[in-house]
Amino acid sequence: MTVATLFSGVAVWDGHSVIGPTDVLVEAPFIRSIGSAARTSAPMGCTVISGARKLLIPGLINGHFHSSTNHLKGRFPSRPLETFMLFESPLDTVNPPTPREVYLRTALGAIEMLQSGTTAVADDAFFLPHPTPELIDAVMQAYADTGIRATVALDQPELPEVEKLPFLDALATGTPYDDRLRTRGAPAEQLLDAYDHLFSRWHDTSDNRLRAAVSVSAPQRVSLDYHRALIDLSERHRTPLYAHILETRTQRVLGHQSSRFSSASLIRYCAEHDLLTPRTDIIHAVWVDDDDMDLIAASGATVAHNPVSNLRLGSGIMPLRRMLDRGIPVALGVDEAVCNDAIDMWSVVRMAGLIHNITDADPARWPQPQEILDCLWRGGAHALGLDGSLGRIEAGALADLALVDLSGPAFTPLNDAAGQLVYCASGADVTLTMVAGRVVCADRHLTLVNQGDLLAECRELYAARAAEQEHMDSQAAQYLSIYSAMLDRARHTEVGMNRLAL
């Protein structure tokens, strides 16, 4: 039986401005009609939702995310990515998480996203020490149960630490950490088996809400053969490929000092080996130069911009205007809870609308609210491979929607909807979230799961594991001196550009 909902007398964001009040008819999973035809064609007995003093917007799209650290919000001080990762994805793990723990931490993130109007997420999930069918199932089941739309890949490095970072090979020699830093990750065959499970069990399931993607994590973290195998998988299933590229200055240094990359930018390395495709989502792309951006534009790849995470880790400011000038599709992402400290796309939207104002003396080149919203919705849909069906309110589009209260302080008075969506709105303004034509959150309470029970179980679980987490933190701290020495060398290596506010 088709689930039908009529939004009655609601203001609608049409992609550029507010129209209405009007009516919008949803017949799951699509928007069926808008305007007078919506009311006249609404089936008997359909649910009617009053849109008085409400604005219907497309659901927010989280264009880059890692669900694996949802339980660690606020735990770690700000550090550069290379030392931050020692704690958020430690080299030494005490006890791998259970499937129930993975389910709970994934559901925790889904709750936070749905409460604030985020309806779709690109999850680059990682697993310690490696993915198993049971852990993959736990992630996907949490997304299935909560009702969110998720496109999920397995972010698993294949190569040892000394091949991923500059100077670490020499610094590790003769230290107590030498063997550990030369230990390879899971072999490619094992990771491809994990992908076989992900695709065969979960791709295009839950009414097509759940999809599989692929991830190389980063080109320096995997072999060329494995990278190419994942590109083949991406093309075969017509699904995105996630790749963190030039997130930090240290990664720029690595490309130039490593013979493996022929002393080239990691973007150029990928382009020369045909590793950039229209399905590639390039994550961060902070330390790119003009040649890199030309190569990205020529490839048709998307860039996922994570401005809050980039600030938390001191990575730098991505050259957004120069990317938009080249027509590069740009999506917006949280990155992960532990380096954003809220799984909140509204804070990402606001930061994207502000941080670039200090990168150009010409105010005509500062991003305008409409451009940021285009990144959020059009760029986000492109990153998920759902162009034309997501991030818009029109007949035939997927009914992933959020209802925003116009009677609160953020929209009183309603001066400019685009500006207020970018600079003023927050998750507190969202009163209802719909995914694929079904209401999945109303008045900040999920409708398909008992969020109170899930949150209580999370609190109990992580209280019981507090001592173990402290032990893992102390183990990670043992590597700080050698990684800090590596960062110091990288910091004193010229790279011919600056992306810091210095």
Features:
five-stranded parallel β-sheet; 502 residues; alpha/beta
What's the total number of strands? 19
Largest sheet: 9 strands, mixed
- Beta-strand content estimate: 15-25%
Structural class: alpha/beta
Give an account of the 3D structure.
The longest helix has 17 residues. The protein is an alpha/beta fold. Strands 1, 2, 3, 4, 5, 16, 17, 18 and 19 form a nine-stranded mixed beta sheet that branches. It contains 19 helices and 19 strands. It starts with a strand and ends in an 11-residue tail after the last helix. The relative contact order is 0.16. It is 38% helix and 20% strand.
Short description:
The protein has 502 residues and is α/β, with parallel strands linked by helices. It is 38% helix and 20% strand. The protein has 19 helices and 19 strands.
Q: Helix and strand layout, with pairings?
A:
Blueprint: E1 4-13, E2 18-27, E3 30-34, H1 36-40, E4 47-50, E5 54-58, E6 60-66, H2 81-88, H3 99-115, E7 118-125, H4 133-146, E8 149-154, H5 168-172, H6 178-181, H7 188-202, E9 210-212, E10 214-217, H8 224-237, E11 241-245, H9 249-257, H10 266-272, E12 280-284, H11 290-299, E13 302-305, H12 307-312, H13 320-325, E14 330-332, E15 335-336, H14 345-354, H15 369-383, E16 401-405, H16 417-423, E17 430-435, E18 438-442, E19 445-446, H17 451-464, H18 466-477, H19 480-491
Parallel strand pairs: 1-4, 1-5, 6-7, 6-15, 7-8, 8-9, 10-11, 11-12, 12-13, 13-14
Antiparallel strand pairs: 1-2, 2-3, 5-16, 16-17, 17-18, 18-19
Helix pairs in contact: 3-4, 3-17, 4-7, 15-16
